[in-house]
Amino acid sequence: MNELLFSLVILGGSFLAGMLGSLTGLGGGVVLVPMLALLFKVDLHYAIGASLISVIATSSGSAAAYVREGFSNIRIGMFLEIATTIGAVVGAWLATRTPVRGIAIIFGVVLLYSVYLSLRGHDDETVPQNKWSDRFKMNGTFPGPDGKEQKYAVKHISGGFATMFGAGTLSGLLGIGSGAVKVLAMDHIMRIPFKVSTTTSNFMIGVTAAASAGIYLRRGYIDPTLAAPVMIGVLIGSLLGAKILVKSNVKSLRLIFSAVIFFLAIEMIYNGVVGKV
Amino acid sequence: MRKPSDKQVDEFIGQVLRAGVLLSSAVTMIGLVLYLWHHSASTPNYHVFHSISGKLRHLRQLFPDAFHGDPVAIIQVGILLLIATPVARVAFLVGAFALERDRMYVAVSGLVLAVLLYSIIFFR
Hints:
By secondary structure, chain A is mainly alpha-helical. Chain A is built from eleven helices and two strands; from the N terminus they run H-H-H-H-H-H-E-E-H-H-H-H-H.
């Protein structure tokens, strides 16, 4: 396969990965990394480096649309970004010290857990008041089901912070946005309304990925000629996926795609165990 | 200076992100098209990891190369612009919190900015 054909195939594959990522709500990286590593036999370090770049593009590209909805909570996001960025630096540090097989196995396990989290549904229970939430100015409002503004507060800030550190580490180690773990921390642990959790998580993903992308770049793990078609493909695919998501009820589609991701996860673990990555 | 509302800050940050992504993907796209124009027949090798050429990692050499039309250097500039986009978002938020006189969040966002700059510039 020559360079032109290879780039076009990568572009098309990344487009599909971006679309699948946004339809399942798991992000482009979770499909992209296994695709590059298993299907195209790209070295896992390059695959992760290219994926990080596409994660930044997707997060920043879709954020402009989320801003208009006005759901995201900048203060909560910024506060938790302390944990995710430090975690991302630790993850990038671990990436050079973990054997490629180990990274593949961890990737698969995280993928399985993310699919489980995304299918489990969410908690709609919110807390009306919390002392620490007041102190850190994290309270906010969001449009409730009856159209009226509903107030919310935040609890278990330290638990959410610790989980966010873990999400950042996984992001730096595996080159994914780890949005599912970020939403777990905000929605499930801190009891932030689901819509606020997902949009705030989307904002945080770009900042988290930038912290580890800089390290990958200076180590030479980001190959420009691979990262370019990946970034453009994933960006267009995920923006299109988000449009489809708004227009149609995709519950059954989501189940099918989750099955695809489940299969990818098993494949990653298997290849890690037998050492074929 | 007048205090900006949270909504104005949101809108502005949204525009910064959109501009950053548009600019960086346009630059990357130009580089990729030029690269494929020149190298379409060669065989790619991403299977074996070999750290990319050192000159792409030094800004002093990267920008002159990009201006002279080196396709890979142009892509690299696009990637750098993309990484700079979320960093710019955090930097603007430091400013916005300062205008709102919210000292706690000037410190919080300042800390995030410091971690980002540290990781991008110094961390090995």
